[in-house]
Amino acid sequence: MNTRRKRFRIGFLFLPILFMLNGCLAGFEMEEFVPNTMDVPKAYSELSIRGINVGNALDAPEPGQWGVMIDPEYFHVIKQAGFNAVRLPVRFSAHTGGNPSYIIDKDFFAMVNDLINHGLNAGLIVILDLHHFDEVMNEPIDYEEKLLAMWDQISRVYSAYPDNLYYEILNEPSRELTRDRWNDLAARVISVIRKNDTHRKIIVDSVDFSNINTIQTLTLPEKRNLIVTFHYYEPFEFTHQGADWVRGSNQWLGNIWIGTAEEKKQIENELNQAAEWSNRNQIPVLMGEFGTIEKADRASRIRWTEFLAREAEKRQISWVYWQFCSNFSLYSCDTRKWDETLLGALIPKNTSK
Ligand code: GLC
Q: What pLDDT band is residue 306 in, cutting at 50, 70 and 90?
């Protein structure tokens, strides 16, 4: 993960956890998007999220280790650019005590909490995403209780929070967390959360790394206030060329995405299936990550990004771009400038307000 290491940037305000509600109840405005008129299947949705992942920050083994420290000002910058949501990937699992209570470290929790408050106060939906809990993927039987204990603590703390804080219970369930095991565990996590927080929107990832093609294997215990999410990085050999965490990906360097009829068809078909599933099951779907590595050809990145965002919107699929200011980035945390062309591909100027 060497390319992820940049310099440590900005400090946090370490506030006590209970100093939280201040200002969060301010009204929240959803932005209007261009209505879709195309004859494509539509997802079941009242959601219209255009979001961005502020990743490689709190999801690193230690905050700052992958080069991104979150300056609260970023949330205003993100809102100003026309986004209405941020996803905050957080590696809670690296910051707990031992069993059976797995108490989340109070300084770490205060740091996360402070950023959640800043995001909400900037008028954004904040998706709190439990990210990189690799142990539960490798040894689910040994780590399930830890996942449940973390969500019990988190949902107690935020039960009185405004509705625009959402929970995402586990990023990219995979490996030994097989379909049946994930369905069982997700239901248990939801039930733990619901004991503390009856109404919060809960996001559930499809199995096999939030694969769009495994959405239909999910069996959810309830429909109310649930959202299903998938991640979209196809063609993987294009979006992940030269990614130092993907073995063999250097041989993909130079791959481009032209947007041929065939290339588009693959994406359209998969999004259609997700939309149809959503409509049939009356559960909204969210493309919670999609993006391209900076090493890829720039013109191809712009074409792919614009195509994905518009095709998702046509189908009422909300989206969250991966990611803000590291390796798939849209913004430079060094120069504090957006990549305006890529940003325009995501949020065309005439639709941002
Ligand atoms: C997943 C991984 C994250 C990675 C991203 C793109 O979210 O958890 O670490 O950067 O996908 O590969």
A: very high
Find the angle CA(71)-CA(73)-CA(77) to the nearest 5 degrees. 120
* Ligand 1 pocket, CB under 6 A: 132, 171-172, 289, 322
> Is 248 inside a domain boundary?
yes
Domain range spanning residue 160? 18-351
Exposed e or buried b for every residue in 216-227, given b needs 16+ CB within 10 A? eebeeeeeebbb
Report the CATH number at residue 149: 3.20.20.80
Residue 140 has pLDDT above 60, yes or no: yes
Q: How many domains does the chain have?
A: 1
**4 inside domain:** no
Q: Which atom of ligand 1 is nearest to the CA of 59?
A: 9
Provide, rounded to the nearest whole percent, the portion of the chain with pLDDT above 70.
88
pLDDT above 70 (res 337): yes
pLDDT at site 47: 78
pLDDT tens string 290-299: 999 999 999 9
Pocket test for ligand 1, best of 322, 323, 325 (most atoms within 8 A of CB): 322
In a domain, 119, yes or no: yes
CB-count exposure of residue 162 (10 Å: 0-12, 13-18, 19+): middle
Residue 210 included in any domain: yes
